[in-house]
Every structure is written in structure tokens, then in C-alpha cells.
Design brief:
five-stranded mixed beta sheet; two-stranded antiparallel sheet; 9% strand
């Protein structure tokens, strides 16, 4: 096989140490040098010096948890580091150890059999850390909301069956009153209701009367509510910090916000995952495959098996699906709604949403590549005024008639186009 990297290094990374195998090609047989280093910064810098002394500028290592990141941080300025997905460098069971793993990674990388993973620039990686942390906090906040609601459900308070939001002004006032008092006054409870909820005063009182809540349960409700309020304040602080980090990406954010269904926070989430440099992806198809939005290819003996989408894009895919749902319901343009309806008839709603998410990601790829705003080539065919649509239909009919006449199928007088074209 062709040698792609004559001088390279394979690295097997662990928490406290990593094993490196330096491969140099001199003649037919390669030569190997194996060394073990600690994951402390001084040792990593020593590893870097060892590579430069041996004129090695290409390193490949397996993406083991987060352990590869400290090594990558100190090497990326002067050495080309390829981070490999574990499934591409997996060794044979029963014949592996740390030294053999690093040698196997180096051998595969030397002949170009290891595709590299996408690693964005430092500023994008930092923004990604903040956005993923925000995702975790929002998920935790949703869990606390459900937990707070369940506290009242198990205590025979069916308020959630009457109000639409347990954290609205009226519902929050009532729950605070229940938690902080030992008695229940229906008249005072009614006085806490606001706006349209006053019409349901009888239902609200009926849903609460006869509840059973002990002091320990009230204390638990207070703890859950305090934790919820704390998460809300932390998310607000995090949003302010994210706005500062996102300032260098404002042109790209404004560009993505022209896509139906994308808000500012959604645009920041997408950019934190894929960055702004689309040259790292050869095409939009590869980007969609990396995001886990393409059907699988599983065929054997002429039989086509499951074509489920992959598990890739753990953070990007949910964001794109959320954007797709918003785009389908967008009132700005019916473009994605009509596309969704066409696909949903044939393939179902879930597959249709994934298809819309892929269309949006494809559009994002081309927008970031060319710098153009969202404007699909078939937009006029879908979102077209009725007068222009009728004009296009009339043109198509004239072309069809001329084609039939040119081939002698009918005479010119045999077909007449009506003045009124049905929609």
C-alpha cells in the first residue's frame, strides 16, 4: 500500500500516561521507536520536543474520552494532529496492550487508513463548551420543573390539571401559599388569581381542597423551587457570557438568522458545533453525515436492511430537529412546510422532520461557504404569487402545445388553451 506519512507517530492516550510509537520509513521496512510519557504538561512538552527532533509533524491518536484534549492543546500549534474515532483504529481482541495499540494506530495512519475527526478552532471549542453546558442546565431546569409539579401531584393537589403553566404568576402564587401556610383559605386563594384564570376560580379551588401535605413534603418542595430559581439565574449569567463569546461570530449569526426557524440562540448552537470554516467538510453531504442526518447503508446478499440514521451529532442533531419543527410552522414562508407535507405523506412525520433538518443543514453549509443569505433555488416554485403561478402555467402549456405540433402529433388548431387557468 502507498505510504502517505513516511514519518509519523501513533499515540495511545490514557488518564495518567500515554504511549507513543514513532515510525520512520527508510527503505522497505519501517523503523519503530516506543516511549511512554506522563500526561503532565512538562512531559507532554517533552514528547513534543522528541517529535520535532525526529522531524515528525504528523501525529494520530484515538479520541479516548477527554484525555486526548490536554495532549492536543500543547501540540496543535506546530504539529498536525489527527484525532481518530475508536472504531477506525480498533485492534484485534486478545492481542492488544498499550504499546501494541500505539503501534497499530501508527501503522494504519502511516498508510492513510485513518480518517480524521473534525476539531474546530480554539474559540469555537470554547463556545461549544459553554453551549453544551447551557444545554445541560436547561435539561436540569426542565427536570426540576417536573419534579416540583410531582411534589404537588403526590399530595393530592391537581392544580396542574387546571392551569397550563405551574410556574405562571397565578399558579406560582398559589403554590407558594400552600407551601408556606398550614391552613387553606379558598377566598384568599381566589384573590391570588390573575386575568383569564379568574374565570376558573371554582375549578382551581376544587383541585386543591382536601390536599394532604406534611411539613417534610413542604420542605422538599421549597428545596426543589430554590434549586429551580438557582438554575434560572445561572442560565441568565451563562447567556450573558455566551453573548460576549459570540461577538466574533456576529456576521455568521446574522446570516443564519435569515433561515426560517432559526433564532439567535439556535444559530449560536449550530456555529458552536460546526464552526464557520466549511472547508473542513468536503461537501454538504459529508457535513450531514457527520451530523447523523443521513440514512444508513446496510445491505448484504442483495437484501437491504435497516437504514436508520446514525447516533452522531448528539448535540447538533436535536438542535437541527428543533429548528426544523419551527421552520415547518414558520409564518414567514411556507417553503419548508410544503416540503414537509410532501415527504410526510410518503414517509411519515418523523422521517419528514429529519429530511427538513438535513435540508436546513445543507442550506447552512452553502450559506457559510458563499456568504449569501437564505434563498433556495426552488423558492419561487413553491412560494409564488397566484398571478405569477398562472403565468408560468400558461407558458408551460404553450410549450407543450408547440412540442406536440412540432412532432406532428396534433394540428395547431386542434388544441385551444382556455383563458382561465384552474389553480
Amino acid at each position: 500500500m502507498t505510504v502517505v506519512h513516511p514519518t509519523c507517530c501513533g499515540v495511545d492516550v490514557h488518564k495518567t500516561f500515554f504511549v507513543a510509537t514513532l515510525i520512520t520509513t527508510e527503505g522497505i521496512q519501517p523503523k519503530y521507536q516506543k516511549r511512554r510519557f506522563s500526561t503532565f504538561n512538562s512531559q507532554i512538552l517533552g514528547f513534543k520536543s522528541w517529535l520535532l527532533e525526529n522531524n515528525c509533524r504528523d501525529v494520530c491518536m484515538e479520541s479516548t474520552g477527554k484525555y486526548w484534549i490536554p495532549v492536543f492543546n500543547l501540540l496543535e500549534d506546530s504539529i498536525r494532529v489527527t484525532i481518530a474515532n475508536p472504531k477506525w483504529v480498533k485492534t484485534i481482541k486478545g492481542n492488544k496492550d498499550d504499546a501494541k495499540d500505539s503501534k497499530w494506530i501508527g501503522d494504519l495512519f502511516r498508510i492513510g487508513l485513518v480518517p480524521g475527526s473534525f476539531i474546530p478552532s480554539k474559540d469555537v471549542r470554547i463556545l461549544r463548551e459553554y453551549m453544551r453546558y447551557r444545554f445541560k442546565l436547561v435539561s436540569c431546569k426542565s427536570s426540576e420543573k417536573n419534579r416540583y409539579q410531582n411534589v404537588f401531584t403526590v399530595c393530592n393537589v391537581a392544580l396542574d390539571a387546571v392551569v397550563s403553566d405551574m410556574f405562571g404568576k397565578s399558579a406560582a402564587s398559589i403554590t407558594d401559599y400552600i407551601v408556606n401556610t398550614d391552613t387553606f383559605d379558598p377566598e384568599y386563594c381566589v384573590s391570588l388569581l390573575q386575568r383569564s384564570l379568574k374565570k376558573k376560580a371554582d375549578e382551581v379551588v376544587e383541585s386543591i381542597e382536601g390536599f394532604q401535605m406534611t411539613n417534610p413534603q413542604k420542605e422538599r418542595a421549597k428545596l426543589v423551587r430554590e434549586h429551580y430559581d438557582y438554575l434560572v439565574s445561572q442560565i441568565a449569567k451563562l447567556d450573558a457570557m455566551i453573548d460576549e463569546l459570540a461577538k466574533p461570530f456576529e456576521p455568521a449569526i446574522s446570516l443564519l438568522c435569515t433561515v426560517p426557524g432559526i433564532r439567535r440562540d439556535s444559530a449560536i448552537t449550530v456555529l458552536s458545533e460546526i464552526g464557520t470554516d466549511m472547508s473542513q467538510f468536503d461537501s454538504s453531504k459529508r457535513l450531514c453525515r457527520w451530523a447523523g442526518l443521513t440514512p444508513g447503508n446496510n445491505e448484504s446478499a442483495g437484501k437491504k436492511k435497516s437504514v436508520r440514521i446514525t447516533r452522531a451529532g448528539v448535540y447538533l442533531k436535536p438542535a437541527l430537529v428543533e429548528i426544523a419543527h419551527a421552520a415547518v410552522k414558520s409564518k414567514i414562508t411556507p417553503y419548508y412546510r410544503l416540503k414537509y407535507e410532501q415527504i410526510a405523506k410518503r414517509r411519515g412525520k418523523k422521517r419528514a422532520v429529519i429530511a427538513i433538518a438535513r435540508m436546513i443543514l445543507t442550506a447552512i453549509f452553502h450559506m457559510l461557504t458563499t456568504g449569501e443569505v437564505w434563498s433556495p433555488v426552488d423558492l419561487n416554485q413553491i412560494d409564488m404569487p397566484s398571478e405569477l403561478r398562472e403565468k408560468e402555467v400558461r407558458k408551460s402549456l404553450h410549450r407543450a402545445v408547440n412540442l406536440l405540433v412540432a412532432h406532428g402529433i396534433v394540428s395547431k388548431d386542434a388544441i385551444q388553451i382556455p383563458l382561465a387557468i384552474p389553480a
